[in-house]
Amino acid sequence: MSQPTIESILQEKRTFSPNAEFSRDARIQSIEEYQKIYDRAAADPAAFWAELAERELHWFEKWDTILDWQPPVAKWFVGGKINISYNCLDRHLTTWRKNKAALIWEGEPGDSRTLTYAQLHREVCQMANVLKQLGVTKGDRVGLYMPMIPEAAIAMLACARIGAVHSVVFGGFSAEALRDRLSDGEAKLVITADGGYRKDAIVSLKAQVDKALANDAVPSVTNVLVVKRTGEAIDMESGRDRWWHDLQQTASADCPAEPMDSEDMLFILYTSGSTGKPKGVVHTTGGYNLYTHMTTQWTFDLKDTDVYWCTADVGWITGHSYIVYGPLSNGATSLMYEGVPRPSNPGCFWDVVEKYGVTIFYTAPTAIRAFIKMGEALPKARDLSSLRILGTVGEPINPEAWMWYHQVIGGERCPIVDTWWQTETGGFMLTPLPGATPTKPGSATLPFPGIIADVVDLDGNSVGDNEGGYLVVKHPWPSMMRTVYGDFDRFRRSYWEHIPPKDGKYVYFAGDGARRDEDGYFWVMGRVDDVISVSGHRLGTMEIESALVSHPAVAEAAVVGKPDDLKGESVVAFIILESNYTAGEELEKTLKQHVVSEIGAIARPGDIRFSDDLPKTRSGKIMRRLLRNLAAGEEITGDTSTLQDRSVLDKLREGA
Ligand code: WT7
Hints:
This protein folds into three domains: 20-83 and 265-490 and 508-527, ANL, N-terminal domain (Rossmann fold, 3-Layer(aba) Sandwich); 86-258, 3-Layer(aba) Sandwich (Rossmann fold), CATH 3.40.50.12780; 532-655, 2-Layer Sandwich (GMP Synthetase, Chain A, domain 3). It is 32% helix and 22% strand. A hairpin with a 2-residue loop joins strand 1 (65-70) and strand 2 (73-78). Helix 7 packs across helix 8 (205-213) and helix 13 packs across helix 15. The chain starts with 19 loop residues before the first helix and ends with a helix. Bound molecules: 5'-O-[(S)-butoxy(hydroxy)phosphoryl]adenosine. 5'-O-[(S)-butoxy(hydroxy)phosphoryl]adenosine (WT7) binds next to helix 11, strand 24, strand 25 and strand 27.
């Protein structure tokens, strides 16, 4: 593992303090108050979390042990009985929130739906009974391949209610990617829709499911439950496929939540690692419930009057933790929007903010850069005065984009919460608390109370102020991933072995480079492994390379990221062809399309470069660092002494 590849040259000095009026009404009102909570939590993290778990969540039975830490195995609230669907739904029904909007949904074509807590509870119970009727029992895995419609959240909560483990696969992934994930998790049931709307076109989800399951490719799947969304014609395989609305008609709305062990698996979500196939990140119940609950409450300073909108897709962890579980556990109103800015309606996000009076808006730098490109006129034409907090996640936000967000969207009055976290962490790790933390554009600021974060070198020693190093977490936290599904050894290797334990103390290795400034603020610099961040989503280079090599024309492929104004990074593929193929535009197109059908549009190479050779070390490892320089059109500055054949670089440069 090399040092972080991104040198920190950023020296941002601007600081923005929360305004007095905002702080006065906030849950946590000053940096001193944050520091007090932080110090208390750091002194005894387990006691800190136990106090909150007791105060904030409903437990059917209390735990015996707060934390059982046998590195790298953490168990939280051992012996406790809990159900996250109960905490998200049932407990609100005995309060005035019973008829409060739980989900406000806006479809891309302009249709909309609001579900109160009582209505959402009813539909979740019905779907839970349907799952039971289809033979799904506690511990079974259920694959979800859904558009952004309320039924996606309903299906997740229904699984949680009966103790089934959901595995949501992003609706933009291809049939092949879906098949791999369903196989790895040995899903028993798949929940999908006929189709969904994206950028004024229909995405035919059910057809992709049919393709994924063709020839009995995933023998564990016995049924497919289909929600009618677009009404397009689809094939329904008799005996296997069932319409959700048919089964709902006769499904009882009485389905008590199953008391789960705190450590029972809640869901699997696949994420890219630097090598090999995607990792099935496993999250469990009690700790995840508590952590997403607390981070939503404090980072977004939740109030009962808030209309909270996270623009992520439920197919990502952001959708899991901060559209569904965190907000609903708090009894908040969570807005779900099916659409994305598109040529026919580039200002649609601001229409949604205005229409529903959104108060908290949480999105990604890639979206912010797209807004900037579309111009100020669009947001300026709408009334955005309801907004009071803005959030960002997914990749480092550059200070100028931060300033634009602050000025144009936030009207200079909304604190920006830049939240650093990962699929693996379950919830926010570094984040401002909006009434307390002075923000600096581009910094995710300080750790959430209870999180002991640091920047270290490869020996695990803390580096000095403003020195680059590896971002690590030094104490277990409730929503940390528990394992890679079916591969505990990979979990250990990926996260716990890069930095050797010191005096028996294990640290969690996040895979990001970072530095800490003189005020203790964290500046995350990006991934240090071979992972490309496209629109804030991690794509493993290995996966894209494998997809390319699966095409008969490709002998060898190396994939790197190249800085991209809009997407953060775009995919550049270096290709060595089999001898009976010739390079050219036609083949370039074919290969791009091949990646789309193997993985999905998100992984489409922006650029394909044909070559006779690739820069390799003497041991045969492709030197991606050099390819990254080439792709970005930069000078090659780093060490090339391990390179087997220097002339390869010159040839590649000439060919560019
Ligand atoms: C990686 C995790 C967590 C939901 C979205 C992506 C990068 C995430 C930030 C931020 C700088 C960030 C990191 C991290 N990242 N948030 N606020 N500042 N970098 O989830 O796919 O698991 O990716 O996204 O590199 O490791 P993910």
